[in-house]
Amino acid sequence: MTSADDEKARRIAAIRSCDRVLSHGKPPTMRERLARLAGRDGLDGPVDMYGDGIVAELEHRVAGLLGTEEAVWFPTGTMAQQVALRCWAGRTGNPVVALHPLAHPEMHERGALSALSGLRTVHPTTARRIPDADEVRGMDEPFGTLMLELPLRDAGFVLPTWDELTAVVEAARERDAVVHFDGARLWECPPHFGHPLDEIAGLADSVYVSFYKSLGGVSGAALAGPADFAAEARTWRHRYGGLVFQQWPAVLAALDGLDHELPRLPEYVAHAKGVAAALRDALAAGAGWVRVHPEVPHTHQFQVWLAESPDVLNEATVRQAEETKTALFGRWAPAEVPGVAMTEVTVGASALEWDPATVGDAVADFLRLVAAA
After folding, report:
1. What are the tens digits of pLDDT across the range 20-39?
2. Where is the Aromatic amino acid beta-eliminating lyase/threonine aldolase domain positioned along the sequence (predicted)?
3. For the purposes of burial, counting CB atoms within 10 Å of the CB of 123, is it exposed (0-12), middle (13-18) or buried (19 or more)?
């Protein structure tokens, strides 16, 4: 194993040994995942073959939740969005996609849009937020599709207001463009917008959702939209190698997430606001420069920035888990600002027992270990 493998194994073992975990929860073993899925009803039915059976059941359910004519299962979100943007480019006759430079295709897909589909990207804004209506209207060249990532993860899981979202969609329509939502984490957006999932999705021409980022699934995604769009998406899914023989374990996990995690997301979003405030106050009292972004989280996820080396913070994080059986943070990485590290906090079921006093005590232990390191 490499040193990175050793570090990861140590971190996972330390978190799994904890009595309390704030962010993300304890990483489950394969046996634990299988045991959970084995408790579901309906497991005596036949397995799926090339997208029928339980896969079609999940597609139907997602279409109902999002208020679209159809939804199409994909093994990965990257493939789903490649297909969506390729389909819209063909239909609009314009290969230009307007999106944020921090959006997933620009940050995490190795230039796949241009390499595989011949698409080109332009950026309405470089600000760390969703582009606004004036920026979309002011684009100096035509574009066929406006892609909006909701929430914009690498900017801090940030969302526009409902009025800002509807305005930017209308601006795209004025430019004769279609709108695609990268909704990998769309599931947790209704509390912020004050509108249900189907009304949010209804603003766009197509929507992608993930089954593991918010719902705790194994893998997989869905692409939702009109029936003719879904039919074309299925064609390109096959061409991209996404028509897998059997996918029932991942689909079972997705259905389990829709059953058990989706109803709890509003509770997580509400609790994240108190956790973020408690972290900000406790860290500011003893850590010097600190930033919690957004100060009031838009979803159940947010960023924490500290003026310290990521190596120091990662060692303190693991040592805290090993020595106190409390895991406060996940992994730290270098931020865009030199000398600053950033970590993402996800408030889920394991965080609901954390009140401000619990957060404050854990922060004090963490800062003590940072100083020692």
Report:
1. 999 999 999 999 999 999 99
2. 51-281
3. middle
User: Which residues pair with residue 20 across a beta bridge?
Assistant: 326
**What is the Cα Rg of the chain in Å?**
21
The answer to whether residue 232 scores a pLDDT higher than 70 is yes
3-state helix, strand, coil in the chain (%, to 5): 50, 15, 35
Identify the pLDDT of residue 286: 86
Within the chain, strands assigned E span 20-21, 70-74, 96-98, 120-122, 145-149, 178-183, 206-210, 221-225, 290-293, 301-306, 326-327, 333-334, 341-346
Round to whole Å and give the CA distance between 215 and 187. 8
The pTM for the full model equals: 0.96
pLDDT digits (tens, 9 = 90+) for 204-229: 999 999 999 999 999 999 999 999 99
Distance CA 362, CA 233 (A): 48
Which residue type, as a one-letter code, is found at position 126? T
206-210 vs 178-183, strand pairing mode: parallel
CA distance 278 to 267: 17
Tokens of 190: 């209704």
pLDDT digits (tens, 9 = 90+) for 270-297: 999 999 999 999 999 987 899 999 999 9
**What are the structural domains of the chain?**
3-30+264-372 (3.90.1150.10), 46-260 (3.40.640.10)
